[in-house]
Amino acid sequence: MSAICQQIKDEYQAWTRRRLEEVTLDYLFLDASFFRMHPGSPAEPVLAAWGITTSGKPAFIGLAPGSGESADAWADFLADHTDRGLASPLLVISDGAPRLIAAIEQSYPKALRQRCLVHRARNILAKVPAGMQAEVKDAYWKIFDTENLKTGPGPELVEIIDARISEMVARYGAAYPSAMKSLTTDQEGLTAYLRFPAEHHNRVRHSNFIERPFGETCRRVKVIGKFPGETSCVTLVWAVLDRASRGWRGLTMTSDGLRLLQDLRRLLLEPPSQLRTRTVTQSLADDVPGTVSATA
Model pTM? Predict the structure, then answer.
């Protein structure tokens, strides 16, 4: 048993040092789960990252202990992957933890950020009386129902959903102002996914993709109660997730979806540089000595 545990530790250490230049992500999911790593200490977070590559394949990217879910802990976690060659994704999906959001915006300033719709629904319903929760929940999810809309992904679809959010706020704002404030806070983060291929919407508008394997991990380690130390905890969590990741489903990549993703990549991450062009004034300046030149 000791030899097996040591082998898993060695595999994990090698995995945390691997280069990531060849991994190009469209979608990156971030989340944390809490485990009792040290005797006598409260549960501490294990930070995790995985995503979907440009070919639609799932990829387990990173796992590390965090000293609390602080902005610095998340920023260090993301910086480690950047240092090992991971380029910015197009869309980062997470819950609404303010420190995590701050780290995402610092580490991937060019990427769009999607706030988990499931987490936001829980935030809203927590501020609504039990007798009205079913009605408000139904109204909330109808906002994001785009199945019968003829409008494709993009800014126009975002405008339609924004209008629906305004309608819901007008309907329930007087009775449940705190709930509706929760709905409109970080509204851009709720609709970022609408700019991406429609066939991906149901998978990238929430972080369940990352939460389900974490839930399975928690279930498996629950019988342990607490670990003898940080290394034992993270190694075991990694072993479970690494094995589980081999069965994760990817995303379908259609020709239209690929074109949209390529357009978004050029727009967000690879914008054309501003070229200095010769204007009529510049041409004249070249011909007339002493003329002050101008550039476009």
Answer: 0.86
